[in-house]
Amino acid sequence: MSDVPKTYRLLRRGDGYYYRRRVPQSLVPLLGKEVIKQSLGTTTLSKAAQLRSLKDMEWDEKFRSLEKLAAEKQSPPLMTRGLALARLRTFVAQRDASWTKQLADDPPGSDDERRSMRIDMLEEQTALRTPDDPNGHAAIWSARQEITQGVPYLFEAKEFSEQEFVELIRRALLELNRREVARLEEDFSKTSFDVLFKAASAPVPDTAKPSDMNFGKLCETYFKQYQTDAKYKGIAQKRIDKVQSSLAVVSELIDADTLVTTIGHAKCTAFRELLSQVPTNANKHYPNLSLREAIERGKASGRQVLSYDTQAFHLATLNAVLRHAHKLALLQTVPSEGLAPWAPKVHASEKRRPFTPDELKRIFAAPIYTGCKDDGRGFAKPGPNVIRRARFWVPLICLFSGMRPNEVCQLELADVRLSKGGTLYFDVNNGGEIKKLKTSASKRGVPVHPELMRFGFGEYVKKLRDEKQQKLFPEIKPGKYGYSSQRVADWFSDTFLPKVVEKDGKICLYSFRHNFRDALRRIEAPEWVLQVCGWSPSKGVSDNYGSGYNPDQLKPYVDKIEYPGLDLSHLYSSKTLTV
Protein backbone atom coordinates (compact mmCIF):
# COMPACT_ATOMS: atom_id res chain seq x y z
CA MET A 1 0.00 0.00 0.00
CA SER A 2 3.03 2.30 0.16
CA ASP A 3 2.57 3.06 -3.56
CA VAL A 4 -1.02 4.27 -3.10
CA PRO A 5 -1.32 7.98 -3.97
CA LYS A 6 -2.21 10.29 -1.10
CA THR A 7 -5.45 11.25 -2.82
CA TYR A 8 -6.53 7.63 -3.52
CA ARG A 9 -10.28 7.34 -2.78
CA LEU A 10 -10.30 10.95 -1.61
CA LEU A 11 -12.44 13.64 -3.20
CA ARG A 12 -12.15 17.33 -2.43
CA ARG A 13 -15.32 19.42 -2.45
CA GLY A 14 -14.98 23.04 -1.36
CA ASP A 15 -12.74 23.06 1.70
CA GLY A 16 -13.48 19.51 2.83
CA TYR A 17 -12.45 15.98 1.88
CA TYR A 18 -14.79 13.08 1.10
CA TYR A 19 -14.19 9.34 1.03
CA ARG A 20 -15.25 8.00 -2.39
CA ARG A 21 -15.25 4.33 -3.31
CA ARG A 22 -16.98 2.21 -5.93
CA VAL A 23 -19.31 -0.54 -4.73
CA PRO A 24 -18.55 -4.00 -6.17
CA GLN A 25 -21.00 -4.61 -9.02
CA SER A 26 -22.47 -7.69 -7.34
CA LEU A 27 -23.39 -5.66 -4.24
CA VAL A 28 -25.01 -2.67 -5.98
CA PRO A 29 -28.53 -4.22 -5.78
CA LEU A 30 -28.10 -4.77 -2.03
CA LEU A 31 -26.76 -1.30 -1.23
CA GLY A 32 -28.89 0.51 -3.80
CA LYS A 33 -25.98 2.65 -5.02
CA GLU A 34 -22.86 2.33 -7.14
CA VAL A 35 -20.59 4.71 -5.25
CA ILE A 36 -19.92 5.33 -1.55
CA LYS A 37 -19.35 8.99 -0.73
CA GLN A 38 -18.93 10.12 2.88
CA SER A 39 -17.67 13.37 4.37
CA LEU A 40 -14.48 12.96 6.41
CA GLY A 41 -15.02 16.21 8.30
CA THR A 42 -11.53 17.52 7.63
CA THR A 43 -9.85 20.10 5.41
CA THR A 44 -6.38 18.58 5.83
CA LEU A 45 -5.05 16.04 3.32
CA SER A 46 -2.86 14.24 5.87
CA LYS A 47 -5.83 13.77 8.23
CA ALA A 48 -8.00 12.69 5.30
CA ALA A 49 -5.43 10.04 4.35
CA GLN A 50 -5.47 8.65 7.90
CA LEU A 51 -9.27 8.60 7.97
CA ARG A 52 -9.31 6.93 4.55
CA SER A 53 -7.44 3.94 6.02
CA LEU A 54 -10.13 3.55 8.68
CA LYS A 55 -12.88 3.86 6.07
CA ASP A 56 -11.12 1.23 3.93
CA MET A 57 -11.17 -1.19 6.88
CA GLU A 58 -14.80 -0.39 7.61
CA TRP A 59 -16.00 -0.91 4.04
CA ASP A 60 -13.79 -3.96 3.41
CA GLU A 61 -15.50 -5.60 6.38
CA LYS A 62 -18.97 -4.47 5.26
CA PHE A 63 -18.44 -5.72 1.71
CA ARG A 64 -17.27 -9.12 3.03
CA SER A 65 -20.39 -9.42 5.18
CA LEU A 66 -22.66 -8.37 2.32
CA GLU A 67 -21.02 -10.87 -0.04
CA LYS A 68 -21.64 -13.60 2.53
CA LEU A 69 -25.31 -12.62 2.76
CA ALA A 70 -25.59 -12.50 -1.02
CA ALA A 71 -24.07 -15.98 -1.30
CA GLU A 72 -26.66 -17.24 1.21
CA LYS A 73 -29.40 -15.38 -0.73
CA GLN A 74 -30.31 -13.29 2.31
CA SER A 75 -31.15 -9.59 2.45
CA PRO A 76 -29.28 -7.34 4.90
CA PRO A 77 -31.52 -6.17 7.77
CA LEU A 78 -32.64 -2.55 8.17
CA MET A 79 -31.42 -0.41 11.07
CA THR A 80 -34.12 1.77 12.61
CA ARG A 81 -33.79 4.47 15.25
CA GLY A 82 -35.70 2.34 17.75
CA LEU A 83 -33.44 -0.66 17.20
CA ALA A 84 -30.32 1.53 17.36
CA LEU A 85 -31.35 3.08 20.69
CA ALA A 86 -32.17 -0.32 22.17
CA ARG A 87 -28.78 -1.75 21.11
CA LEU A 88 -26.88 1.34 22.29
CA ARG A 89 -28.57 1.44 25.68
CA THR A 90 -27.72 -2.22 26.23
CA PHE A 91 -24.15 -1.54 25.10
CA VAL A 92 -23.79 1.40 27.53
CA ALA A 93 -25.33 -0.52 30.43
CA GLN A 94 -23.13 -3.60 29.92
CA ARG A 95 -19.89 -1.72 29.37
CA ASP A 96 -20.62 0.63 32.27
CA ALA A 97 -21.20 -2.34 34.59
CA SER A 98 -17.94 -3.92 33.38
CA TRP A 99 -15.91 -0.73 33.93
CA THR A 100 -17.47 -0.19 37.38
CA LYS A 101 -16.47 -3.71 38.45
CA GLN A 102 -12.99 -3.31 36.96
CA LEU A 103 -12.39 -0.06 38.87
CA ALA A 104 -13.64 -1.65 42.10
CA ASP A 105 -11.44 -4.75 41.64
CA ASP A 106 -8.34 -2.82 40.56
CA PRO A 107 -8.52 0.80 41.78
CA PRO A 108 -5.69 3.31 41.05
CA GLY A 109 -2.79 2.76 43.46
CA SER A 110 -2.04 6.45 43.99
CA ASP A 111 -3.31 9.96 43.28
CA ASP A 112 -0.77 10.25 40.45
CA GLU A 113 -2.11 7.10 38.81
CA ARG A 114 -5.68 8.37 39.24
CA ARG A 115 -4.73 11.71 37.61
CA SER A 116 -2.98 9.88 34.77
CA MET A 117 -6.05 7.70 34.13
CA ARG A 118 -8.25 10.81 34.19
CA ILE A 119 -6.00 12.58 31.64
CA ASP A 120 -6.20 9.53 29.35
CA MET A 121 -10.00 9.57 29.57
CA LEU A 122 -10.15 13.31 28.84
CA GLU A 123 -7.91 12.80 25.79
CA GLU A 124 -10.32 10.13 24.55
CA GLN A 125 -13.16 12.57 25.13
CA THR A 126 -11.37 15.21 23.05
CA ALA A 127 -10.85 12.70 20.25
CA LEU A 128 -14.57 11.88 20.23
CA ARG A 129 -15.47 15.57 20.13
CA THR A 130 -13.07 16.34 17.24
CA PRO A 131 -14.63 15.43 13.86
CA ASP A 132 -11.36 14.70 12.03
CA ASP A 133 -9.53 12.86 14.84
CA PRO A 134 -8.59 9.34 13.60
CA ASN A 135 -8.59 8.00 17.18
CA GLY A 136 -12.20 9.07 17.60
CA HIS A 137 -13.16 7.43 14.31
CA ALA A 138 -11.37 4.22 15.31
CA ALA A 139 -13.19 4.10 18.66
CA ILE A 140 -16.57 4.60 16.96
CA TRP A 141 -15.84 1.92 14.36
CA SER A 142 -14.77 -0.58 17.03
CA ALA A 143 -17.91 0.12 19.09
CA ARG A 144 -20.05 -0.20 15.98
CA GLN A 145 -18.67 -3.67 15.27
CA GLU A 146 -19.56 -4.72 18.82
CA ILE A 147 -23.04 -3.17 18.71
CA THR A 148 -24.00 -4.63 15.31
CA GLN A 149 -22.06 -7.87 15.87
CA GLY A 150 -20.60 -7.41 12.39
CA VAL A 151 -24.00 -7.52 10.66
CA PRO A 152 -24.03 -5.11 7.65
CA TYR A 153 -27.23 -3.22 8.43
CA LEU A 154 -28.76 -1.03 5.73
CA PHE A 155 -30.16 2.45 6.34
CA GLU A 156 -33.13 4.30 4.85
CA ALA A 157 -31.79 7.87 4.84
CA LYS A 158 -35.22 9.44 5.00
CA GLU A 159 -36.13 7.54 8.18
CA PHE A 160 -32.80 6.98 9.97
CA SER A 161 -29.48 7.60 8.25
CA GLU A 162 -26.12 5.96 8.81
CA GLN A 163 -24.72 9.36 9.88
CA GLU A 164 -27.38 9.53 12.62
CA PHE A 165 -26.39 6.03 13.79
CA VAL A 166 -22.70 7.00 13.94
CA GLU A 167 -23.62 10.12 15.92
CA LEU A 168 -25.57 8.03 18.45
CA ILE A 169 -22.55 5.73 18.86
CA ARG A 170 -20.38 8.78 19.48
CA ARG A 171 -22.82 9.98 22.15
CA ALA A 172 -22.80 6.53 23.77
CA LEU A 173 -18.99 6.52 23.96
CA LEU A 174 -19.00 10.06 25.37
CA GLU A 175 -21.55 8.99 27.98
CA LEU A 176 -19.34 6.07 29.06
CA ASN A 177 -16.28 8.31 29.12
CA ARG A 178 -17.98 10.96 31.27
CA ARG A 179 -19.20 8.31 33.73
CA GLU A 180 -15.68 6.93 34.05
CA VAL A 181 -14.20 10.40 34.60
CA ALA A 182 -16.82 11.06 37.29
CA ARG A 183 -15.92 7.79 39.06
CA LEU A 184 -12.22 8.66 38.94
CA GLU A 185 -13.06 12.03 40.49
CA GLU A 186 -15.28 10.24 43.04
CA ASP A 187 -18.22 12.36 41.91
CA PHE A 188 -21.34 10.23 42.43
CA SER A 189 -23.90 13.03 42.08
CA LYS A 190 -25.05 11.72 38.67
CA THR A 191 -25.70 8.25 37.32
CA SER A 192 -25.87 9.51 33.72
CA PHE A 193 -25.14 12.63 31.66
CA ASP A 194 -26.90 12.20 28.32
CA VAL A 195 -30.69 11.89 28.60
CA LEU A 196 -30.68 9.24 25.85
CA PHE A 197 -28.87 6.84 28.17
CA LYS A 198 -30.61 7.63 31.42
CA ALA A 199 -32.30 4.23 31.50
CA ALA A 200 -29.05 2.47 30.55
CA SER A 201 -27.46 3.16 33.93
CA ALA A 202 -29.71 0.78 35.81
CA PRO A 203 -31.32 -1.80 33.52
CA VAL A 204 -34.18 -3.80 34.96
CA PRO A 205 -33.29 -7.51 34.95
CA ASP A 206 -35.74 -9.96 33.40
CA THR A 207 -36.25 -11.46 36.86
CA ALA A 208 -37.44 -8.16 38.35
CA LYS A 209 -40.72 -8.33 40.25
CA PRO A 210 -43.63 -6.88 38.25
CA SER A 211 -44.18 -4.20 40.88
CA ASP A 212 -40.60 -3.01 40.30
CA MET A 213 -41.01 -2.76 36.52
CA ASN A 214 -40.11 0.61 35.02
CA PHE A 215 -41.80 2.16 32.03
CA GLY A 216 -38.93 1.36 29.67
CA LYS A 217 -39.20 -2.34 30.48
CA LEU A 218 -42.99 -2.19 30.11
CA CYS A 219 -42.58 -0.75 26.60
CA GLU A 220 -40.21 -3.61 25.74
CA THR A 221 -42.65 -6.29 26.93
CA TYR A 222 -45.54 -4.60 25.13
CA PHE A 223 -43.61 -4.39 21.85
CA LYS A 224 -42.58 -8.06 22.02
CA GLN A 225 -46.24 -8.98 22.41
CA TYR A 226 -47.19 -6.59 19.59
CA GLN A 227 -44.64 -8.18 17.25
CA THR A 228 -46.02 -11.65 18.02
CA ASP A 229 -49.59 -10.49 17.37
CA ALA A 230 -48.52 -8.67 14.20
CA LYS A 231 -47.03 -11.85 12.79
CA TYR A 232 -50.33 -13.72 13.03
CA LYS A 233 -52.54 -10.77 12.08
CA GLY A 234 -50.50 -9.97 8.98
CA ILE A 235 -49.74 -6.40 10.08
CA ALA A 236 -47.44 -4.63 7.60
CA GLN A 237 -43.82 -3.90 8.55
CA LYS A 238 -44.44 -0.20 7.94
CA ARG A 239 -47.00 -0.20 10.74
CA ILE A 240 -44.74 -2.20 13.07
CA ASP A 241 -41.90 0.29 12.53
CA LYS A 242 -44.28 3.19 13.14
CA VAL A 243 -45.36 1.70 16.48
CA GLN A 244 -41.72 1.11 17.47
CA SER A 245 -40.83 4.73 16.67
CA SER A 246 -43.84 5.93 18.65
CA LEU A 247 -42.79 3.81 21.63
CA ALA A 248 -39.40 5.56 21.61
CA VAL A 249 -41.14 8.97 21.79
CA VAL A 250 -43.56 7.87 24.52
CA SER A 251 -40.80 6.24 26.58
CA GLU A 252 -38.59 9.32 26.41
CA LEU A 253 -41.35 11.79 27.36
CA ILE A 254 -42.76 9.66 30.18
CA ASP A 255 -39.17 8.82 31.32
CA ALA A 256 -38.10 5.20 30.94
CA ASP A 257 -36.99 4.99 34.60
CA THR A 258 -40.46 5.80 35.97
CA LEU A 259 -41.98 2.97 37.99
CA VAL A 260 -45.12 1.80 36.23
CA THR A 261 -47.05 1.61 39.51
CA THR A 262 -46.54 5.36 40.03
CA ILE A 263 -48.06 6.42 36.69
CA GLY A 264 -51.38 8.21 37.16
CA HIS A 265 -53.61 10.73 35.43
CA ALA A 266 -51.31 13.65 36.30
CA LYS A 267 -48.33 11.93 34.63
CA CYS A 268 -50.41 11.26 31.51
CA THR A 269 -51.70 14.82 31.21
CA ALA A 270 -48.14 16.10 31.67
CA PHE A 271 -47.12 13.78 28.82
CA ARG A 272 -49.89 15.20 26.63
CA GLU A 273 -48.74 18.75 27.36
CA LEU A 274 -45.13 17.91 26.45
CA LEU A 275 -46.27 16.04 23.34
CA SER A 276 -48.21 19.09 22.14
CA GLN A 277 -44.95 21.09 22.12
CA VAL A 278 -42.74 18.62 20.22
CA PRO A 279 -41.63 20.15 16.88
CA THR A 280 -42.25 18.30 13.64
CA ASN A 281 -39.36 16.18 12.33
CA ALA A 282 -37.47 16.64 15.60
CA ASN A 283 -35.02 13.82 14.78
CA LYS A 284 -34.23 15.41 11.42
CA HIS A 285 -33.87 19.01 12.60
CA TYR A 286 -32.35 18.30 16.05
CA PRO A 287 -30.66 14.88 15.71
CA ASN A 288 -28.32 15.43 18.66
CA LEU A 289 -30.90 16.73 21.13
CA SER A 290 -33.34 15.02 23.46
CA LEU A 291 -37.03 15.67 22.80
CA ARG A 292 -37.19 18.08 25.74
CA GLU A 293 -34.22 20.00 24.34
CA ALA A 294 -35.82 19.91 20.88
CA ILE A 295 -38.99 21.43 22.35
CA GLU A 296 -37.05 24.42 23.68
CA ARG A 297 -35.12 24.84 20.43
CA GLY A 298 -38.32 24.52 18.41
CA LYS A 299 -40.04 27.20 20.49
CA ALA A 300 -37.12 29.57 19.99
CA SER A 301 -37.15 29.12 16.21
CA GLY A 302 -40.94 29.08 15.87
CA ARG A 303 -41.01 25.60 14.34
CA GLN A 304 -44.37 23.95 13.72
CA VAL A 305 -45.43 21.33 16.30
CA LEU A 306 -46.76 17.81 15.72
CA SER A 307 -50.11 17.61 13.95
CA TYR A 308 -53.34 16.46 15.57
CA ASP A 309 -53.08 13.04 13.89
CA THR A 310 -49.47 12.47 14.99
CA GLN A 311 -50.24 13.45 18.57
CA ALA A 312 -53.30 11.19 18.50
CA PHE A 313 -51.14 8.27 17.35
CA HIS A 314 -48.63 8.76 20.20
CA LEU A 315 -51.48 9.06 22.73
CA ALA A 316 -52.95 5.83 21.34
CA THR A 317 -49.55 4.17 21.81
CA LEU A 318 -49.40 5.33 25.44
CA ASN A 319 -52.93 4.05 25.93
CA ALA A 320 -52.03 0.64 24.48
CA VAL A 321 -48.95 0.34 26.71
CA LEU A 322 -50.87 1.27 29.86
CA ARG A 323 -53.67 -1.15 28.94
CA HIS A 324 -50.93 -3.78 28.74
CA ALA A 325 -49.83 -2.74 32.25
CA HIS A 326 -53.45 -3.10 33.42
CA LYS A 327 -53.54 -6.66 32.04
CA LEU A 328 -50.32 -7.40 33.96
CA ALA A 329 -52.04 -6.12 37.15
CA LEU A 330 -49.51 -3.29 37.45
CA LEU A 331 -52.25 -0.65 37.26
CA GLN A 332 -55.81 -0.74 38.57
CA THR A 333 -57.04 1.63 35.84
CA VAL A 334 -55.77 3.03 32.53
CA PRO A 335 -54.99 6.67 33.46
CA SER A 336 -54.49 7.82 29.85
CA GLU A 337 -57.98 6.78 28.80
CA GLY A 338 -59.95 9.56 27.11
CA LEU A 339 -57.07 12.02 26.63
CA ALA A 340 -57.37 13.91 23.34
CA PRO A 341 -54.54 15.78 21.55
CA TRP A 342 -53.90 19.44 22.28
CA ALA A 343 -54.00 20.46 18.63
CA PRO A 344 -56.65 21.64 16.17
CA LYS A 345 -58.17 18.80 14.19
CA VAL A 346 -57.69 19.26 10.46
CA HIS A 347 -60.43 18.00 8.15
CA ALA A 348 -59.23 15.49 5.56
CA SER A 349 -60.11 17.90 2.73
CA GLU A 350 -57.77 20.52 4.21
CA LYS A 351 -54.69 18.28 4.53
CA ARG A 352 -53.87 18.44 0.83
CA ARG A 353 -54.87 20.94 -1.83
CA PRO A 354 -54.52 21.18 -5.60
CA PHE A 355 -51.76 23.27 -7.14
CA THR A 356 -52.77 26.81 -8.05
CA PRO A 357 -52.59 27.84 -11.74
CA ASP A 358 -49.44 29.85 -10.98
CA GLU A 359 -47.82 26.86 -9.22
CA LEU A 360 -48.59 24.61 -12.19
CA LYS A 361 -46.93 27.13 -14.52
CA ARG A 362 -43.84 27.25 -12.31
CA ILE A 363 -43.59 23.47 -12.04
CA PHE A 364 -43.71 22.89 -15.80
CA ALA A 365 -41.40 25.82 -16.52
CA ALA A 366 -38.65 24.23 -14.41
CA PRO A 367 -35.43 23.12 -16.20
CA ILE A 368 -36.45 19.45 -16.14
CA TYR A 369 -39.29 20.43 -18.53
CA THR A 370 -37.55 23.19 -20.49
CA GLY A 371 -33.98 21.89 -20.64
CA CYS A 372 -31.64 20.76 -17.88
CA LYS A 373 -28.14 19.40 -17.40
CA ASP A 374 -29.52 15.92 -16.59
CA ASP A 375 -32.47 14.42 -14.71
CA GLY A 376 -30.30 13.35 -11.78
CA ARG A 377 -28.49 15.90 -9.65
CA GLY A 378 -28.51 18.35 -12.52
CA PHE A 379 -32.31 18.45 -12.82
CA ALA A 380 -32.48 22.09 -11.62
CA LYS A 381 -29.56 23.36 -13.70
CA PRO A 382 -30.51 24.82 -17.11
CA GLY A 383 -29.10 22.82 -20.00
CA PRO A 384 -29.89 21.36 -23.40
CA ASN A 385 -31.70 18.18 -22.31
CA VAL A 386 -35.39 17.39 -21.79
CA ILE A 387 -35.09 13.81 -20.58
CA ARG A 388 -38.36 11.90 -20.78
CA ARG A 389 -38.09 9.43 -17.91
CA ALA A 390 -39.92 8.98 -14.59
CA ARG A 391 -39.23 12.45 -13.20
CA PHE A 392 -40.61 13.96 -16.41
CA TRP A 393 -43.60 11.68 -16.93
CA VAL A 394 -44.98 10.90 -13.47
CA PRO A 395 -46.21 14.45 -12.64
CA LEU A 396 -47.72 14.82 -16.14
CA ILE A 397 -49.53 11.48 -16.01
CA CYS A 398 -50.86 12.29 -12.52
CA LEU A 399 -52.12 15.66 -13.79
CA PHE A 400 -53.87 14.27 -16.87
CA SER A 401 -55.18 10.97 -15.44
CA GLY A 402 -56.02 11.65 -11.79
CA MET A 403 -54.20 8.44 -10.85
CA ARG A 404 -52.50 8.09 -7.49
CA PRO A 405 -48.69 8.44 -7.62
CA ASN A 406 -48.10 4.81 -6.67
CA GLU A 407 -50.54 3.64 -9.35
CA VAL A 408 -48.49 5.53 -11.93
CA CYS A 409 -45.05 4.52 -10.66
CA GLN A 410 -45.81 0.79 -10.57
CA LEU A 411 -47.20 0.61 -14.13
CA GLU A 412 -45.78 -2.04 -16.42
CA LEU A 413 -45.57 -1.71 -20.20
CA ALA A 414 -48.27 -4.38 -20.47
CA ASP A 415 -50.57 -2.04 -18.51
CA VAL A 416 -50.60 0.43 -21.41
CA ARG A 417 -53.35 -1.23 -23.39
CA LEU A 418 -55.79 -0.73 -26.24
CA SER A 419 -59.51 -1.29 -25.58
CA LYS A 420 -61.86 -3.08 -27.96
CA GLY A 421 -63.12 0.33 -29.00
CA GLY A 422 -59.59 1.55 -29.81
CA THR A 423 -59.00 3.64 -26.66
CA LEU A 424 -55.44 3.68 -25.35
CA TYR A 425 -55.62 3.38 -21.56
CA PHE A 426 -53.73 2.65 -18.35
CA ASP A 427 -54.82 -0.65 -16.80
CA VAL A 428 -54.66 0.06 -13.05
CA ASN A 429 -54.35 -3.32 -11.33
CA ASN A 430 -52.55 -5.13 -8.52
CA GLY A 431 -51.20 -8.03 -10.54
CA GLY A 432 -47.58 -9.06 -9.94
CA GLU A 433 -45.46 -9.24 -6.81
CA ILE A 434 -44.99 -5.58 -5.87
CA LYS A 435 -48.12 -3.84 -7.13
CA LYS A 436 -50.34 -2.29 -4.47
CA LEU A 437 -53.75 -0.64 -4.70
CA LYS A 438 -55.49 1.45 -2.06
CA THR A 439 -58.65 -0.70 -2.29
CA SER A 440 -59.95 -3.50 -4.48
CA ALA A 441 -62.28 -0.90 -6.08
CA SER A 442 -59.20 0.99 -7.31
CA LYS A 443 -58.88 -1.41 -10.25
CA ARG A 444 -59.89 0.52 -13.35
CA GLY A 445 -58.91 1.58 -16.85
CA VAL A 446 -57.95 5.24 -17.29
CA PRO A 447 -57.79 6.65 -20.85
CA VAL A 448 -54.48 8.19 -21.91
CA HIS A 449 -55.11 11.93 -22.37
CA PRO A 450 -54.33 13.30 -25.88
CA GLU A 451 -51.88 15.82 -24.36
CA LEU A 452 -49.70 12.95 -23.11
CA MET A 453 -49.50 11.65 -26.67
CA ARG A 454 -48.53 15.12 -27.90
CA PHE A 455 -45.75 15.14 -25.27
CA GLY A 456 -44.28 12.00 -26.91
CA PHE A 457 -45.75 9.27 -24.69
CA GLY A 458 -46.30 6.95 -27.68
CA GLU A 459 -42.68 7.34 -28.75
CA TYR A 460 -41.53 6.70 -25.15
CA VAL A 461 -43.55 3.45 -24.89
CA LYS A 462 -42.32 2.20 -28.28
CA LYS A 463 -38.70 2.82 -27.28
CA LEU A 464 -39.13 0.79 -24.08
CA ARG A 465 -40.83 -2.06 -25.94
CA ASP A 466 -38.00 -2.12 -28.48
CA GLU A 467 -35.61 -2.44 -25.51
CA LYS A 468 -37.68 -5.38 -24.15
CA GLN A 469 -38.32 -3.54 -20.90
CA GLN A 470 -41.02 -4.73 -18.50
CA LYS A 471 -41.65 -1.59 -16.44
CA LEU A 472 -42.97 1.72 -17.75
CA PHE A 473 -40.33 3.39 -15.57
CA PRO A 474 -37.43 0.90 -15.29
CA GLU A 475 -35.30 3.26 -13.17
CA ILE A 476 -37.83 3.36 -10.31
CA LYS A 477 -36.95 1.06 -7.41
CA PRO A 478 -39.48 0.31 -4.65
CA GLY A 479 -38.97 2.09 -1.33
CA LYS A 480 -38.48 0.59 2.11
CA TYR A 481 -42.05 -0.68 2.38
CA GLY A 482 -42.46 -1.82 -1.22
CA TYR A 483 -44.18 1.29 -2.61
CA SER A 484 -42.90 2.20 -6.07
CA SER A 485 -43.79 5.87 -5.59
CA GLN A 486 -41.81 6.48 -2.38
CA ARG A 487 -38.53 7.70 -3.87
CA VAL A 488 -40.16 9.72 -6.66
CA ALA A 489 -42.66 11.31 -4.27
CA ASP A 490 -39.93 12.17 -1.76
CA TRP A 491 -37.78 13.72 -4.50
CA PHE A 492 -40.71 15.71 -5.88
CA SER A 493 -41.87 17.05 -2.49
CA ASP A 494 -38.55 17.54 -0.70
CA THR A 495 -36.11 18.36 -3.50
CA PHE A 496 -37.96 19.55 -6.60
CA LEU A 497 -40.91 21.57 -5.25
CA PRO A 498 -38.93 23.87 -2.90
CA LYS A 499 -36.92 25.06 -5.91
CA VAL A 500 -39.98 26.22 -7.86
CA VAL A 501 -42.80 27.12 -5.43
CA GLU A 502 -43.29 28.16 -1.82
CA LYS A 503 -44.37 25.09 0.15
CA ASP A 504 -47.09 25.29 2.79
CA GLY A 505 -47.23 21.64 3.86
CA LYS A 506 -50.36 20.97 1.79
CA ILE A 507 -48.90 20.32 -1.67
CA CYS A 508 -47.10 17.23 -2.89
CA LEU A 509 -47.14 14.81 -5.83
CA TYR A 510 -50.65 13.73 -4.76
CA SER A 511 -51.92 17.29 -5.35
CA PHE A 512 -52.13 16.64 -9.11
CA ARG A 513 -54.93 14.18 -8.36
CA HIS A 514 -56.88 17.01 -6.72
CA ASN A 515 -56.28 19.21 -9.78
CA PHE A 516 -57.76 16.45 -11.95
CA ARG A 517 -60.80 16.14 -9.66
CA ASP A 518 -61.44 19.89 -9.89
CA ALA A 519 -61.06 19.72 -13.68
CA LEU A 520 -63.72 16.97 -13.84
CA ARG A 521 -66.07 19.18 -11.86
CA ARG A 522 -65.40 22.13 -14.18
CA ILE A 523 -66.62 20.09 -17.16
CA GLU A 524 -69.59 18.93 -15.06
CA ALA A 525 -68.67 15.26 -15.39
CA PRO A 526 -71.48 13.00 -14.19
CA GLU A 527 -71.39 11.38 -10.76
CA TRP A 528 -70.43 7.97 -12.11
CA VAL A 529 -67.25 9.41 -13.68
CA LEU A 530 -66.20 10.86 -10.31
CA GLN A 531 -66.98 7.53 -8.66
CA VAL A 532 -64.97 5.55 -11.17
CA CYS A 533 -62.01 7.90 -10.67
CA GLY A 534 -62.27 7.45 -6.90
CA TRP A 535 -64.19 10.54 -5.70
CA SER A 536 -67.62 10.10 -4.23
CA PRO A 537 -69.09 9.78 -0.77
CA SER A 538 -71.55 7.17 -2.07
CA LYS A 539 -70.83 3.51 -2.69
CA GLY A 540 -71.86 0.92 -5.20
CA VAL A 541 -70.99 2.13 -8.67
CA SER A 542 -67.21 2.07 -8.35
CA ASP A 543 -67.34 -1.40 -6.80
CA ASN A 544 -68.91 -2.71 -10.00
CA TYR A 545 -66.71 -0.67 -12.34
CA GLY A 546 -65.00 -3.68 -13.87
CA SER A 547 -68.18 -4.83 -15.53
CA GLY A 548 -70.15 -1.57 -15.62
CA TYR A 549 -67.90 1.02 -17.28
CA ASN A 550 -64.93 0.80 -19.62
CA PRO A 551 -62.25 3.21 -20.90
CA ASP A 552 -64.24 3.89 -24.07
CA GLN A 553 -67.03 5.38 -21.95
CA LEU A 554 -64.58 7.45 -19.88
CA LYS A 555 -62.60 8.77 -22.84
CA PRO A 556 -64.94 11.67 -23.84
CA TYR A 557 -64.66 13.11 -20.32
CA VAL A 558 -60.90 12.60 -19.90
CA ASP A 559 -60.28 14.15 -23.34
CA LYS A 560 -62.05 17.34 -22.17
CA ILE A 561 -59.75 17.81 -19.16
CA GLU A 562 -57.78 21.04 -19.44
CA TYR A 563 -56.16 23.59 -17.17
CA PRO A 564 -56.99 27.21 -18.12
CA GLY A 565 -53.90 29.37 -18.49
CA LEU A 566 -51.49 26.40 -18.54
CA ASP A 567 -49.63 26.29 -21.86
CA LEU A 568 -47.56 23.12 -22.21
CA SER A 569 -46.87 23.38 -25.94
CA HIS A 570 -43.13 23.58 -25.21
CA LEU A 571 -43.35 19.89 -24.26
CA TYR A 572 -44.81 18.75 -27.59
CA SER A 573 -42.72 16.15 -29.36
CA SER A 574 -41.97 16.22 -33.07
CA LYS A 575 -43.08 12.58 -33.12
CA THR A 576 -46.55 11.54 -31.95
CA LEU A 577 -46.49 7.80 -32.52
CA THR A 578 -49.47 5.67 -31.61
CA VAL A 579 -48.89 2.71 -29.31
Give the percentage of residues in beta strands.
Answer: under 5%
pLDDT under 50 segments (min length 5)? 200-208, 537-548
Secondary-structure element order, N to C: EEHEHHHHHHHHHHHHHHHHEEEHHHHHHH
Structural class designation: mainly alpha
Distance between the termini: 57 Å
Beta-strand segment tally: 6
Number of domains: 3
Largest sheet composition: 3 strands, antiparallel
Strands of the largest sheet, in order across it?
A: 1-2-3
The 3D shape can be described as: globular
Fold-level CATH name of the largest domain: hpI Integrase, Chain A
For this structure, what is the CATH class of the largest domain?
Answer: Mainly Alpha
Could you report the average pLDDT, rounded to the nearest whole number? Answer: 83
The Rg value, from CA coordinates, equals: 28 Å
Could you state the oligomeric state of the chains shown? single chain
Helix count, per DSSP? 24
CATH arch. level architecture of the largest domain? Orthogonal Bundle
Summary tags:
globular; 3-stranded antiparallel sheet; hpI Integrase, Chain A; 5% strand; 579 residues; 50% helix; mainly alpha; single chain; 3 domains; DNA polymerase, domain 1
What does this structure look like?
With 579 residues, the chain is mostly helical. The protein has 24 helices and six strands. It has three domains: 190 residues, no CATH class; 137 residues, DNA polymerase, domain 1, CATH 1.10.150.130; 222 residues, hpI Integrase, Chain A. The strands form two sheets. A three-stranded antiparallel β-sheet has the order 1-2-3, covered by helices on one side. A three-stranded antiparallel β-sheet has the order 4-5-6. Helix 3 packs parallel to helix 6 and helix 16 packs parallel to helix 21.
